[in-house]
Every structure is written in structure tokens, then in C-alpha cells.
What does this fold into?
Amino acid sequence: MSNKIKVLIVDDSALIRQVLSKIIESDPELEVVGTAVDPIVARDKIKSLKPDVLTLDIEMPRMDGITFLRNLMRLHPMPVVMISTLTSAGAEVTLEALEIGAIDFVSKPKLDVSEQLQSYSDEIIEKVKTAASAKLRGSVTKSIPKVAEKLTVDAVIPKRSPASSYKNSDKFFAIGASTGGTEAIKEVLMRMPADAPGIVITQHIPAAFSAPFAKRMGSVTNMTVHHAIDGQQILPGNVYIAPGDRHLIVEKSGNRLVCRLNDGPLVNRHKPSVDVLFRSVVQAVGDNVIGVMLTGMGNDGALGMKEMYDAGAITIAQNEESSVVWGMPGSAVEMGGVEHIVSLDKIAEKMLDVCKKS
It folds into this structure.
């Protein structure tokens, strides 16, 4: 019996099926057990081939990917990685797919598809492996593959002593998330009152998707949600989401706190990086912040959260049971930087409670 992760590729493009098959088969832990040109064919192949992970295109003949995903998650839930286009329309549909239950997505370039997809090969392999071990409703999480580190946060913000306790501004929240984070963030924001402390958020997401994501979050919360811009003041009742191609940094400007956008290198293979946000907060306000780590693969943000904790800030991590992937919060816990470990449905309540008490 093979111990490889079995993958079924569903895409109406013969070229995409060929390129994805080549990329996935290049990893010794993965095996493409079949391909399907549309969801109707895929339905039968799921029954006969019993794949561990599905890659699913959104735009296909006979049945679109979203309709198929809804049926799949209702009748035969399984890990799905969406293949989506880097457009505003593609972003809206992809966010809907994540809401329905897809684990993650890979962006499909509009030009030079074969060459561009090859350049994403490491990301594709990593996301397929993560999906295989991610938590579905009612399932048990397997071990989570670690993300290989490249540049650390020092490449963007060199470490220095935390700011002394900075009380000239209102206390605020800093949130980091990755895989599963779009839905986890929604769950938190839905429970926030209109006058909640300000919130700055770094979610790993492509540049074309971050503005639609911010707009989507604005429709589910009583707070005002912004796709963060450089120099924007951080105020109570407002949420600031990092653009998908810039690091979000918090800085002091006189007696104000403002968002700064940084075009530095990838940190832990990400831009925006949670480590960058968390370290910037420590250096700007010391302990006058509450850090929150939500579901996500890898360990981006764990070091930054430990620095927040060491500076005296309150830190909260999503628990393993409610996380799609307990990589980032698990790494923060393992590093000793977490004060409270809480289920997703209780995180907003905990955030508001500790803020009030502090």
C-alpha cells in the first residue's frame, strides 16, 4: 500500500492538468491518481479513486466549481485546493469557496500559464500537503508540514528594545492569520461591536485578493474595515487589513499611531508577514497592544508574538481543535509566547475581556 498523498486534479484545461500533474508528481510524497475535465467526471473518479486531496478549477463546463464544491462539502467532505484566477471576480469567487469549505487556493496566471505555474511549484506542493493534513469539520488533524524559512523579520525590521509602555493611544489589537484565516477573521469581526478597539490585520493573501477580502469583511462587521493605506491613522472602531503585496507596519507619529506600508523582501516566504506586523507593534507601543494568532500553516508570526509576550503584551492564540491548520498558533505556543489559548468562537469575547481588564 502506498503512503503517498493521493491527488485528483479537476480542470477543463488540458494544459493546466498536465502542468499540475508534473508539479505534484515531482514530490515523492504526492501521487496524482487521476484527472477530470469537469465536475461530472470528477464525481465518479472520487468514488473509484478515493483521493486524499482535490484541486478544483472554478470555471468549468457542465457545472461550475462553486456549485460542485457546495455539493461535495454537503455529501462527501474532503480537502480541496481551489485553482483561481488573479482577478477581482476570481477573488470574490475564491473567498466564497473558502467560506464553503475549501482549505486553500492557488492563483492561476492569465498569461504564460505553464511557465508561471512552474514558478509556483513549491507553493502548490506545500498547499496540497497542508490540505491533506488540515482539519475538516468533525475530522482529526494530522501532523502539519513545516514551512521552510527564508528571510527572517530582521530583513525588514531589525530587532531593538521594545518601546516603553506607550499610553498616549488607545489599546488596540494586532491579528495574524494564514490558511483558514479568511473565515477565522470573519468569525472574530462578526462578534465585534462598532466601538471596539482598533484592529490591524495581516492575512497571507495575494495582492489581487486583499481589497475584495477587506470589502467582504466590511459587510459582516459593525466596525469600519479598510484596505490599509500608508499613513492612515489607527482609530477605535476601525479595522486595517494589509494589502497582499506590502508588509503592514505600525508606527508612532507624534501622539498618533499610523499604518505604514513596506515593500521590503519576503519574510518567512510571505509579504505581508505577521512577524513584521507584530515586531513593529512591539517597537511602537511596547505592551499597549493585544496580539492574536489565528489558524495558519508554517510559523510566521511566532517570533513576533514571543517578542510581544516578552514585552508584557497580552497574547491570544486559536486552539488546535478549532484551527484549520495549527501551524502558526501552534508554533507561537511552542515558542512560549502565548498567554491565552482559546477556541475560535470565544476569541472575540476573550479579546474584549482582556482589553477591558487591562
